[in-house]
């Protein structure tokens, strides 16, 4: 049976790697993007090379209305995802007293509010079909906290708690919910760091290097597979040993 996977933030970075990996594994993929249409189109073309369908969907995930519009578009296209991977996100560096309401709202909306609405809108069909997978991209900072990134850490910590709670709600229906607490991964999110700063980050990681988007994608692929059907409510670290 061919599964349909919705991947948010799939035009670049981890989301793009996840979309490509799931397509390689036989899934039809819905590639969500917000502003990078050309990049999303490239990802779609890559996915189609595996012989699968790849549908592009632009949506503003920061509001419930935006996600509801995405769901309506998918229904018109005859696509109901039974896998949802939430990779869309932004970061912010700054001490708490430097954070204004706009920044707080932006981070909470894209990370936590989006996880809520994706679940609210797409879980019912999974429960009805008695099969489904949610994977939320979290962060090591959502587990251990981070000075200078308290808002980002709070948003990801909320995602972790939401993951555990919804896993309990849907377990009896055969729907699993997990999160990947990624460490420092070589994506645009680290582009603001200098070479010396990146070297300092790597020196704190036992494996001595940044993670690769493809490594995150491989873990996601496992979590949405039948092999992981007894794994739910977990926040799995993928951080090169950073939490040790």
Automatic annotation (TrEMBL):
Highest taxon, organism lineage: Bacteria
Residues covered by the Ketoreductase domain: 3-216
Residues that span the membrane, as ranges: none
UniProt-listed Pfam families: adh_short_C2 (PF13561)
Record family assignment: Belongs to the short-chain dehydrogenases/reductases (SDR) family.
Record protein name field: 3-ketoacyl-ACP reductase
Organism: Cohnella kolymensis
């Amino acid at each position: 049976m061919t599964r349909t996977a919705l991947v948010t933030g799939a035009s670049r970075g981890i989301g793009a790697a996840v979309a490509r990996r799931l397509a390689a594994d036989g899934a039809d993929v819905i590639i969500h993007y917000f502003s990078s249409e050309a990049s999303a189109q490239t990802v779609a073309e890559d996915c189609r090379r595996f012989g699968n369908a790849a549908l592009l969907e632009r949506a503003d995930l920061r509001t419930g209305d935006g996600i509801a519009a995405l769901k309506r578009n998918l229904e018109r296209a005859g696509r109901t995802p039974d896998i949802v991977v939430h990779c869309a996100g932004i970061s912010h560096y700054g001490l708490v007293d430097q954070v204004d309401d706009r920044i707080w709202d932006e981070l909470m909306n894209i990370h936590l509010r989006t996880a809520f609405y994706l679940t609210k809108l797409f879980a019912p069909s999974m429960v009805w079909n008695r099969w489904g997978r949610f994977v939320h991209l979290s962060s090591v900072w959502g587990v251990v906290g981070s000075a200078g990134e308290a808002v980002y850490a709070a948003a990801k910590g909320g995602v972790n708690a939401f993951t555990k709670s919804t896993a309990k709600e849907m377990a009896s229906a055969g729907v699993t919910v997990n999160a990947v607490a990624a460490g420092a991964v070589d994506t645009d999110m680290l582009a603001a760091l200098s070479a010396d700063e990146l070297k300092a980050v790597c020196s704190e990681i036992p494996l001595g290097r940044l993670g690769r988007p493809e490594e995150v994608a491989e873990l996601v692929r496992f979590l949405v597979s039948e092999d992981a059907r007894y794994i739910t409510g977990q926040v799995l670290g993928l951080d090169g040993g950073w939490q040790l």
